[in-house]
Amino acid sequence: MPDSKDRTRHEQLARELERHARAYYAQDAPTISDAEYDGLFRDLLSLEARSPELVTPHSPSQRVGAQAREGFTKYKRPVRMYSLDNAYSEAELREFDERVVNGLGH
Hints:
Blueprint lengths: L3 H23 L7 H17 L39 H14 L3
Helix pairs in contact: 1-2
């Protein structure tokens, strides 16, 4: 069971991440850098790993991005696009490379 400090911190992080995601996706006006956002997101994931009871369907960890700004045309790519998935170290970059190579069947 998470303590009240963890629950409060989780709620704060969730609200802050949602606010920044809305600014980034819907308003095309980022309020923090990608690295700062990723740091907040990692803090949220860490809290949820320690206290899985904090994970709800509404948690930012349970969805990708936010509603995009109107005016964008949807495009279906013929080949899957791979993401660096927030790689910040050499080990994470090597893991990304391995996922790409494995995904290509090589």
